[in-house]
Structures are given as C-alpha cells and as structure tokens.
Design brief:
Elements (H helix, E strand, L loop, with lengths): L2 H10 L3 H4 L14 H11 L5 H32 L5 H11 L8 H10 L7 H8 L2 H11 L4 H9 L4 H12 L1 H16 L2 H8 L8 H9 L6 H32 L5
Length: 259
C-alpha cells in the first residue's frame, strides 16, 4: 500500500536524469529541490496569485465537506428512525441514483446549475456536493443500527428531535461521518480538473488541481514540476486520512451497541 506513496515522494525530489533513468530507481540518489523551484517560477508567471487558487481549493473542500456531512446526516435520520408515508420510496430513489455514472448526469446537472444562475460561482461545485446521495446512503445504513430504545429514552427525558439527533445519534455514528469526511474531502480536493472547468470560467475562481493540470499539459519538459505537483496534491488527503484513521478504527471498535 505504501509503495506508490513512497515512490511519489521520491520522484518529487529526483533530478531529471534520475526521473528518466531506465530501469527506474525506487529511491532518489541525489535529492534536489529544483522541481519545486521550477514549479514556483511557473506560478510566478501567472497573473492570478497562487494563494488565490489555494484559497479556492480549501474553501470548496472544507465548506463542501461540512455541508455534505450535515445535510446527509440530517436527511438520513428521518429515513432511518422515523416512520412516514413514502419513506421506502424515497430511499429507493436514493439507491437508484447511486447507479448512474457522473458522465450520465453531466448534462442534466449543467442544465440545472445554469437554470439556477449558478454558473461561474462556488455554488456550481458546492451545491452538487451538498446533495450527493452517497453520504445519505452511508449515514442511513449506520443510523439503522442504533437501538430504538436509545431514542425512546431521549424522548422520555424530554429531549426534542433536534437534541436527540445532535447529542445521541451523531456521536454514535461517528465512524460513519468520519469516513464520509475522508471521501468527500478527497473528492472535492481533486475535483478541479474534472469539474471546475465545466462550471467555472473565471480564472480567479479556479482551483489548485486545475492549475496543476495545466502544468502537466506542458509536455515532457515539465516532468520534474509534475512530480512535485503530484506530491503536493496528495499531501492534503493523506494528512486528513492519517488524522482520522485512528479515530475511525477506535470508534468502530468501542462504540458498538447492542439491544
């Protein structure tokens, strides 16, 4: 599992002669920061500061992840624990939506965002992230494992539905929303070259991933900076995973509840 990660880090510090060496060497022999300095020089020539691209990426990733976790959890709770007409139909629609590829829904999504007047805004990326059904499905499956007696005990103590949701249900399903944070943050952090250029045309609103993709399109002469870019792009998802991994495993092993 660690092999591609270590190889990526090693490539980022290799000079060009070692990158193109055949057969390739796994570890760098003469580490250098040239790849990073060239990358900085490329960004220096851009009329939009690199800090702006960085802000866009962090803003979209953090706000999109927070909104997705909150909305998915709030929608999953009534589907899992409240009985109302049409509940099974709604969940069937959620499951059915997971079967459609992003390429199938690309045109309808674009038409919807255009009709809402959200093209060339942050909302063009944030709104689909908020409404992603993967998180709703994941949270609903976890919440169904919560004993009904726990919720009934909260109601007997006079707790409202909102208090039960925030203080009883959400702590119990901590492994679910921690896992959802990992998936959502990774998807939003690396969505620039895939999604941003479809909905965002202003250079000042584009993300780091999109700009890094432009560097990669520079050809073989930019192989070194591309290696540095790949290393930097994986830092955020890997860091988030390392921070949350122990919490996910620990919570999964200690928060089991039985009726």
């Amino acid at each position: 599992m660690a092999f591609p990660l270590v190889f990526t880090v090693s490539n980022a510090f290799k000079p060009l002669d070692e990158i193109f060496l055949f057969p390739p060497r796994f570890f760098v022999r003469h580490p250098t920061l040239t790849n990073f300095t060239v990358m900085v020089d490329i960004f220096a020539d851009s009329w939009v500061p690199f800090s702006r691209y960085l802000f866009n990426s962090f803003f979209i990733a953090i706000v999109g992840t927070a909104g997705h976790v909150i909305i998915a959890s709030a929608a999953a709770y009534p589907l899992a624990k409240l009985k109302f007409p049409g509940r099974n139909v709604l969940f069937s629609v959620v499951v059915l939506s997971l079967m459609f590829s992003a390429y199938v829904t690309a045109v309808p999504n674009y038409m919807t965002i255009s009709w809402l007047g959200m093209l060339n805004t942050y909302w063009a990326i944030l709104l689909p992230a908020f409404g992603s059904t993967l998180g709703l499905y994941l949270m609903k499956q976890f919440m169904e494992q919560i004993p009904d007696e726990l919720i009934e005990a909260g109601k007997i103590d006079g707790a409202s539905e909102y208090r039960i949701f925030w203080q009883l249900v959400m702590p119990v399903v901590k492994p679910a929303w921690l896992t959802l944070i990992i998936f959502s943050l990774q998807g939003l952090w690396t969505n620039g070259s895939v999604t941003s250029h479809k909905y965002i045309y202003s250079e000042q609103l584009k993300t780091v991933d999109y700009v890094f993709g432009q560097i990669a399109n520079g050809g073989i002469a930019r192989t070194g900076p591309v290696a540095a870019v790949t290393f930097l792009m994986m830092l955020v998802p890997i860091t988030v995973f390392i921070i949350t991994q122990s919490n996910v495993i620990q919570t999964m092993t200690t928060s089991g509840m039985k009726e």
